[in-house]
Amino acid sequence: MADKDVELTTRAQEDDLVAHEAIEDERNKSDKQQSGNVLERYISFVSAINFGFILQCSWEAAAVTFQFSLSNGGPASIVYGSIFAGFGTTLVALSLAEMASMDPTVGAQYRWSATFAPKFNRFFGLMQGWITVFAWICSCTSNPALISNIVVGLAIFNNPEYVPQRWHVTLIMWAITIFPFLGNFWFRKLLNPLEAVGAICHVVFFIVSIITLVVLAQRSTVEYVFHTLTHDVSGWTNPAVAWGIGLLTVTYPLTGFDGVLHMSDEVKKARVRVPRSMILSVVMNGIMQFAYMLTVLFTIGDVEKVSSDALPIIQVYYQATGSKSATNLFVIMLAIIIFVSFFNVFASVSRLCWAFSRDNGLPFSHIFARVHPTLKMPLNSLILIGVCLCLLAIINIGSSTAFNAFISLPALALYISYFFPIFFLFWRRVSRNHPTPIPWGPFQLGKFGIPVNILALSYIIFIVIWMPFPTVLPVDGISMNYAGPLIGAVIVGGLIDWVISGRKRFQVPVVRQRPDF
């Protein structure tokens, strides 16, 4: 009976918080509308869940990128790596969800780093902002990179005489970017139908794909799926190194769960709904990714044919169905979900850029912090992101392994952006001399907070170690993995910005005041 009373009390407190938060949101909205620099709250709980659920599109992204694991780690890296990535990313999501419950804000990581850093709050906030904005711009680039890879793969599959040029991929990426850019002008009207269609396709295509492969494809052995560790194909001969590099396929698709965070100013009752959306998104996508990749490994067919294909998943479906038409349909299904996800990613990163500009984090912040009075969205930030995507797409012309950069770079940058706020919160948790208590929100890890934070940080460190590794040896200018150097360049750029004007320009964000109860 006592436990039930505690549970009822907790629920009552949460309902009370939500009610007060709704009042607070309306008050803030009224105050900010006078300055014309406000985003309206219109995203419901179901839309918030669907937003994160579709944005990750984990099983589709894993299907298009599992060639990295075929040559590094093989099935062992995919199977056990999926389990490892699922648990690890869930721990990271729990840690960030706790902070989202305290302060659900578009700025998220950089705002929390500025809040919880023990010293040099403005410095860590600005540096975190540069890393997070760069991470999300790169993450936005990965969607057109994945789709262009599918388009080129299908072109080769249907016309073997076609010889793709690197500039072809760049043009395809530019063409794909136009649609979410224009679509975001009316994102409010598109959101509900787009999320509903995307969520249905995400689940239905998943079920249809698994049933088709299980019923029609030739079976692999249990020995192949669970005991094969590939370490003699890419040039990396050490099994542990090969397994670690192969994690890229299964860790990359589970990043980006913080996308709904950067829409917080448009989510109703954000303190409760944003954390739930983040956690549910990671759990559901992690389960679907593991189930799909396990199915693919058991139905992979002729491994040599699959490995030699420009897009290996094409051969998996073709060997199972024996039909080019059916194969085209299944692979196009992957592209459709990734394309719908692109709208969400584009919206999320434009809001993040807007929030960072609002706190004077970017040069010329006054331009990118504006909200269009009619469209009720940060139009200038949206244009900036579109230009950055088009410029990053040019990388593909100079390097035949640029696709690897488009995948490993956002994963590396996002994990780094997750590390610092979790570390600072952990430090605050164990600190005994801080004058003020942590302003907990309705979602709190309680006694599990310290072990969850430690395990999340350990997982991030482990993953970040492998992300900059080149996927093939020997390394030259073309096969080099430029993820590490590019991240380093962003950090150096952030330091230069701090020295020149950032330390004077950047404003330390102040956590929104919550009603006291």
UniProtKB/TrEMBL annotation:
Compartment(s): Membrane
One Pfam match, by short name?
A: AA_permease_2
| Example of a GO MF term | transmembrane transporter activity
Q: What is its main location?
A: membrane
Q: How does it sit in the membrane?
A: Multi-pass membrane protein
* GO CC terms in record: membrane
- Keywords recorded for this protein, A-Z: Membrane, Transmembrane, Transmembrane helix, Transport
The membrane spanning regions, by residue number, are 42-66, 78-102, 123-147, 167-187, 199-220, 240-261, 282-301, 329-356, 377-397, 403-427, 448-469, 481-500
Name the PANTHER family for this protein: AMINO-ACID PERMEASE BAT1, GABA TRANSPORTER (EUROFUNG)-RELATED
Please state what the protein is called: GABA permease
